[in-house]
Amino acid sequence: MKTTKIWLALAGILFIILGILCICSPTETIFAAAWLIGLFTLLSGIIKLAFTFYTQAFLPNSASRALSAILQIILGCILLGNKIFVAISLPIIFALWVIVESATTAIQSFDYKRIGFPHWWCILLLGIGGTVLGILGLKNPDVTASTLSVFIGIGIITIGCSYLVALRGINKFETKVDHFKKTIGIDEQ
Question: Which pTM does this prediction carry?
Fold first, then answer.
């Protein structure tokens, strides 16, 4: 258990450091994210292809799954070979996603109004606000990239902090277990 706690503490500290680096180096963070997208696409395709060959005897349509896996492998290779294109596209894709999701939220607010939800207007305003932010993100992809890097960094820092909090929880749990053992008269040897 001591080794696990050491690794948990080390991982938490390293995640916090990595998160801070992401916030301080937005360009490198976007390029790293682009590389990871390519790598995950490639690995996912390889795993999908292996699964297809493994299950072809008892699952139908193995040829279409194999074709899909091969196309995914090709896409992964293309993404890995064109990190600059992916890095440039990432903020634009993110901004478009924010626009679509926010506009959908604004439209859905009227459904909430129809069923009598009194705060439907909050959903409408948040949807409009998100749409505006998405449009601004499209107009300023550099700012969007920096913002993405900050969000990625904050997310990674949050993971690191959660590891350290979990470590504290483990220590507290161990203390309670030791106290319980002493209460019922179990001695560790």
Answer: 0.66
